[in-house]
Specification:
The protein has 365 residues and is α/β, with parallel strands linked by helices. The chain is 41% helix and 16% strand. The radius of gyration is 21 Å and the shape is globular.
Length: 365
């Protein structure tokens, strides 16, 4: 089968990571796979090159010219299946199928962002989902939101497929990386955008007891060029005297190597789809502290470690609960996370579910 994966760019985002991993899975199953992007950001380009997956670029600032060039590429490609992630890419692919098409089109929803209810553009995107063969989300909350906006999408065209995880790279540590009890390393993986809620995390840390502030070390890996949130957050960190707690790093492809060095992994966003960092941390048997958004409460049933991201006090309580856990309690929490990850994020099963959709032989369920 000849498959085209369409997305805005190969930046270091979670949607890009998932689509790249799926493409590698398709290729390993004997299919011909290629990418089409319209922004030249090549964080994952080397990974695709290593697997001989070609990347086609249509770099055009004019939206209309870009659309017609992408439409021509898709229609002339003799593809059996097209898989697009993110709303603008999906919209382009949906319109490219008019007035008719021979390929199967699967569009992927990747974020349960409540702004889709308030934005005319975001609502409009979802109304064009009726032109796709299948709409796939990585959380039940996301599908529920899409169908609330566009109730005309048939239920049997909607699917929830959780993220795939490369378990062969995500084996838990046999030994504890950090034997010190006077130091707790919390890892965060997120681009610096306001929705990732660094400011709220700073407010929560500020109100922790002094003895907990003293042992806590937060290492944040992410792109810092998305908006001004990091600059403002760093001012607040300096003002509150928390420079010893917060440490910022550029994104890295092999983030699981950094996760292994951490005592726990955190996510503090106002909204999410199904974040890769949570899935991968679970696979590594790490405790996870996270916002109670989307399907995260289904993944992390320990209510002491989930919180309302709009309430700094709620976040503080969760952080304090995490820091008060004994090493044995953290290890037990991590083992439970690993068991759930093995059940929910089965690599082969979820890749085959996408392939069934692209072959258009999937059954409702």
């Amino acid at each position: 089968m000849k498959i085209l994966c369409v997305i805005d760019s190969l930046t270091s985002g979670g949607a890009q990571r998932q689509l790249v991993n799926l493409a590698i899975g398709f290729k390993n199953n004997g299919h011909h796979v290629s990418f089409l992007v319209y922004h030249r950001i090549n964080f994952f380009k080397e990974t695709l090159d290593e697997h001989d997956i070609p990347v086609h670029e249509i770099i055009q600032s004019n939206y209309i010219i870009r659309f017609f060039k992408m439409r021509a590429f898709i229609r002339r490609g003799n593809f059996h299946g097209v898989l697009s992630f993110l709303e603008a890419s999906g919209f382009i692919c949906e319109l490219s199928g008019l007035p008719n098409r021979k390929w199967t089109l699967v569009v992927g929803e990747r974020s349960a962002n409540p702004m889709m209810f308030k934005s005319v553009k975001k609502r409009t995107y979802r109304w064009f989902h009726g032109l796709a063969d299948y709409v796939v989300a990585n959380s039940y909350e996301n599908i529920k939101m899409v169908r609330k906006i566009n109730p005309l999408i048939p239920k049997d065209k909607c699917r929830v497929i959780y993220n795939i995880i490369q378990f062969d790279h995500l084996t838990p540590n046999d030994k504890q990386n950090n034997p010190r009890e006077d130091h707790f390393k919390l890892l965060v993986v997120a681009g610096h955008r306001y929705l990732k809620n660094l400011s709220g995390l700073i407010d929560a840390v500020r109100t922790l007891p002094a003895e907990q502030q003293k042992i806590l070390s937060i290492h944040w890996f992410g792109n810092s060029k998305i908006d001004s949130s990091k600059d403002k957050a760093e001012q607040k960190i300096h003002e509150y005297g928390l420079s010893h707690v917060f440490h910022f790093h550029d994104p890295v492809i092999q983030i699981h190597q950094e996760m292994r060095k951490a005592d726990a992994v955190g996510l503090f966003s106002f909204h999410e789809g199904l974040p890769n960092v949570v899935c991968e941390a679970m696979a590594l048997a790490k405790p996870v502290i996270a916002s109670a958004v989307s399907d995260i409460p289904l993944l992390i049933p320990n209510q002491n470690l989930t919180f309302d991201p709009n309430k700094a006090e709620d976040m503080r309580k969760a952080l304090s609960s995490l820091l008060c856990m004994t090493r044995e309690e953290r290890n037990n929490e991590g083992r439970k996370n690993r068991e759930r990850a093995l059940q929910l994020f089965n690599n082969e099963e979820n890749i085959n579910r996408y392939l069934s959709l692209l072959k258009n032989d999937d059954q409702p369920g």
